[in-house]
Amino acid sequence: DTEVTQTPKHLVMGMTNKKSLKCEQHMGHRAMYWYKQKAKKPPELMFVYSYEKLSINESVPSRFSPECPNSSLLNLHLHALQPEDSALYLCASSRQGLVLAGNTIYFGEGSWLTVV
Amino acid sequence: KQEVTQIPAALSVPEGENLVLNCSFTDSAIYNLQWFRQDPGKGLTSLLLIQSSQREQTSGRLNASLDKSSGRSTLYIAASQPGDSATYLCAVSRNTGTASKLTFGTGTRLQVTL
């Protein structure tokens, strides 16, 4: 099972709402990632969790709050977002945080977020 | 700051042609380079990973090469098929402590026509 599952696939939220994106993998991976991808642009790294600890935060605004409750789950809590935050949010995982030969990174299909 | 560029931005070829996608990066201090495929509205699928000490990797009709010193990689697709139509992204990685940072290229949108 080489799958990263993201829910919901689509989310529309108002600027005052609080919502969460969820990501799950059952491959025993110990590194999980959030990427943001705007239309026709490459993905940009937001956060990396390694062994359930936040390893990298790419200076993401505090209205995005990641959480890693256990080694299989990764959440992204959203609050007071702006319309420019509308994008495809991709979750990914790898066996460990360091990208090595054979340590392929697997991506989910993403959650399309629209902020109105 | 690492910058990754892919040329061409878009490419249309008839079925059966061999083609080459290019990727260049500005900082040669990379750990490895990966090629991904992304179908419209979907996530990314890893195609090939080349360690910085390697020169090339092959998987089926795909062959990726890496010239780290010149900051270049190519993805060669043999005998292209309509199912190969997608956006192809290269990404370079740099390890920082216990995690890696992937920086993606700008992508090449490939269309293979019948």
Structural write-up:
The complex is a heterodimer of chains A (116) and B (114). Chain A has no helices and eleven strands. With 116 residues, chain A is mainly beta. In chain A, strands 2, 4, 5, 6, 9, 10 and 11 form a seven-stranded mixed β-sheet that branches. A four-stranded antiparallel β-sheet of chain A has the order 1-3-8-7, with no helix packed on it. In chain A, strand 4 and strand 5 (44-50) form a beta hairpin. In chain B, strands 2, 4, 5, 9, 10 and 11 form a six-stranded mixed β-sheet that branches. In chain B, strands 1-3-8-7-6 form a five-stranded antiparallel β-sheet, with no helix packed on it. At the A-B interface, strand 5, strand 9 and strand 10 of A face strand 4, strand 5, strand 9 and strand 10 of B.
In brief:
Chain A has 116 residues and is mainly beta. Chain A contains no helices and 11 strands. In chain A, strands 2, 4, 5, 6, 9, 10 and 11 form a 7-stranded mixed sheet that branches. Chain A has a 4-stranded antiparallel sheet with strand order 1-3-8-7, with no helix packed on it.
Q: Helix and strand layout, with pairings?
A:
The complex is a heterodimer of chains A (116) and B (114).
Chain A: E1 4-7, E2 10-13, E3 18-25, E4 31-37, E5 44-50, E6 53-57, E7 64-70, E8 73-79, E9 87-94, E10 106-107, E11 111-115
Parallel strand pairs in A: 2-11
Antiparallel strand pairs in A: 1-3, 3-8, 4-5, 4-9, 5-6, 7-8, 9-10, 9-11
Chain B: E1 4-7, E2 10-14, E3 19-25, E4 32-38, E5 44-51, E6 56-59, E7 62-67, E8 72-77, E9 86-96, E10 99-104, E11 108-113
Parallel strand pairs in B: 2-11
Antiparallel strand pairs in B: 1-3, 3-8, 4-5, 4-9, 6-7, 7-8, 9-10, 9-11
Provide keyphrases for this structure.
heterodimer, A: 116 residues, mainly beta, seven-stranded mixed sheet, four-stranded antiparallel sheet, 11 strands, 55% strand, globular, B: 114 residues, six-stranded mixed sheet
Question: Would you list the SSEs of chain A in sequence order as H and E?
Answer: EEEEEEEEEEE
Greatest interface and its participating residue counts: A-B, 31 and 28 residues
The 3D shape of chain B can be described as globular
**CA radius of gyration of chain A:** 13 Å
Order of helices and strands of chain B: EEEEEEEEEEE
Mean pLDDT across all amino acids of chain A? 91
Largest sheet of chain A: 7 strands, mixed
Distance between the terminal alpha carbons of chain B, to the nearest Å?
Answer: 41 Å
Which stretches of chain A of 5+ consecutive residues score pLDDT under 50? none
How far from one another are the termini of chain A?
36 Å
Radius of gyration of chain B: 14 Å
Q: Strand percentage of chain A, roughly? A: over 45%
Shape of chain A: globular
Q: Write down how many β-strands of chain A occur, each being a DSSP E stretch of 2 or more residues.
A: 11
Counting DSSP E segments of at least 2 residues, the number of strands of chain B comes to 11
Strand content of chain B: over 45%
Task: Report the major sheet of chain B.
Answer: 6 strands, mixed
Approximately how much helix is present in the residues of chain A?
Answer: under 10%
Low-confidence stretches of chain B: none
Structural class estimated from helices and strands of chain A: mainly beta
